[in-house]
């Protein structure tokens, strides 16, 4: 039978994951110091050895069905179904290495160090503060120990980010650049289905990000791949922080009806009045029986 080749880039997973009770696992790494009077919340941005030993340590064994591991201060790893092939011990602990100046969390180590997941893993890191433009810094997969910004979303008092490999991470001010990190899978569809991670170091495979250049064209930023299907594209500067003139929503035009799909106005439908600066849209909507104008992010709307 002829086999069709489909290449898939997994950037999200909708699989539900069972919660794991890590109390017994924590007993194996119970700190020698007393934790009776140690407050795990709220999060602090400096390294306190006693607090780290009491609040930022967890270990649990999961399998291909996935699971959730949480520390005392709320640092959480959610591993979806199929992210690991077999039994794997997930660890979380606070690093003794000081975080760089401006960081709002200590450096957190996630293990096994170097593991590459078949599906993105969600990591939640409690924050000492949520003001400013924050992003997650994650050590590169190339083993250099270099921290690169990988984004994330501030949800309440936490930073939530999806990663495809384990290493160390912390949260600090956004420098205005992004690094793309993901895992490519190849699926053969035939009488049987086989999924594997392709070798992305082949010279015939081109890894790049195409970024609008403000004149209707695109600029290519080259990336690097590895033999285990993992690839990275470093240093993608966010266009909204430059002086280039660009259209934040080229497929949405003034006068069109649009729907807000993210944020506190999710589900609201309005008419696009004009496109503002820095990827902002101004909409006319009906709220509480009265027409008002609201400003939303371009990424938060879609044509209605």
List keywords for this structure.
mainly beta, 2 helices, 4% helix, 45% strand, globular, disordered N terminus
Your description of this structure?
This protein is mainly β. The chain folds into 2 domains: 4-178, Chondroitinase Ac, Chain A, domain 3 (Sandwich), CATH 2.60.220.30; 257-303, SH3 type barrels, CATH 2.30.30.30. 4% of the residues lie in helices and 45% in strands. It contains 2 helices and 23 strands. A hairpin with a 5-residue loop joins strand 15 (208-212) and strand 16 (218-222). Mean pLDDT is 76; it is low at 1-18, 20-32 and 239-246.
How many helix segments?
Answer: 2
Distance between the termini: 43 Å
Quickly name the level 1 CATH class of the largest domain.
Mainly Beta
Rg measurement, Å: 22 Å
Low-confidence stretches: 1-18, 20-32, 239-246
Cα shape: globular
| Oligomeric form | single chain
- Any idea of the CATH topology of the largest domain? Chondroitinase Ac, Chain A, domain 3
Shape-level CATH architecture of the largest domain: Sandwich
Q: Return the domain count.
A: 2
**What is the tally of beta strands?**
23
Strand residue percentage: over 45%
**Which strand order does the major sheet show?**
2-5-6-12-8-9
Helicity, as a percent range:
under 10%
Write the element-wise H/E pattern from the N-terminal end onward: EHHEEEEEEEEEEEEEEEEEEEEEE
Mean pLDDT: 76
Largest sheet: 6 strands, antiparallel
Which structural class do the helices and strands define? mainly beta
């Amino acid at each position: 039978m002829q086999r069709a080749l489909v290449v898939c880039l997994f950037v999200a997973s909708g699989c539900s994951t069972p919660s794991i009770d890590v109390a017994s696992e924590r007993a194996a790494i119970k700190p020698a110091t007393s934790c009776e009077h140690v407050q795990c919340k709220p999060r602090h941005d400096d390294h306190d050895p006693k607090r780290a030993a009491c609040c930022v340590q967890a270990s649990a064994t999961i399998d291909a069905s996935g699971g959730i591991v949480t520390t005392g201060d709320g640092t959480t790893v959610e591993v979806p179904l199929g992210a690991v092939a077999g039994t794997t011990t997930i660890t979380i602990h606070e690093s003794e290495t000081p975080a760089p100046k401006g960081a709002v969390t200590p450096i957190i180590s996630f293990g096994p160090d170097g593991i590459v997941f078949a599906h993105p893993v969600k990591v939640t890191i409690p924050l000492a503060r949520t003001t400013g433009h924050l992003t997650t810094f994650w050590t590169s997969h190339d083993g250099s120990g270099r921290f690169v910004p990988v984004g994330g979303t501030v949800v309440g008092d936490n930073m939530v980010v999806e990663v495809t490999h384990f290493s160390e991470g912390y949260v600090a001010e956004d420098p205005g650049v992004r690094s793309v990190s993901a895992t490519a899978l190849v699926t053969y569809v035939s009488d049987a289905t086989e999924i594997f991670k392709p070798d992305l170091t082949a010279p015939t495979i081109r890894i790049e990000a195409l970024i609008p250049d403000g004149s209707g064209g695109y600029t290519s930023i080259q990336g690097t791949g590895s033999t285990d299907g993992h690839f990275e594209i470093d240093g993608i500067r966010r266009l909204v922080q430059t002086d280039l003139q660009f259209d934040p929503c080229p497929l949405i035009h003034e006068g069109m009806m649009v729907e807000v799909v993210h944020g506190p106005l999710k589900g609201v439908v309005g008419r696009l009045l004009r496109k503002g600066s820095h990827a902002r849209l101004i909409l006319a909507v009906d709220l509480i029986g009265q027409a008002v104008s609201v400003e939303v992010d371009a990424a938060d709307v879609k044509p209605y």
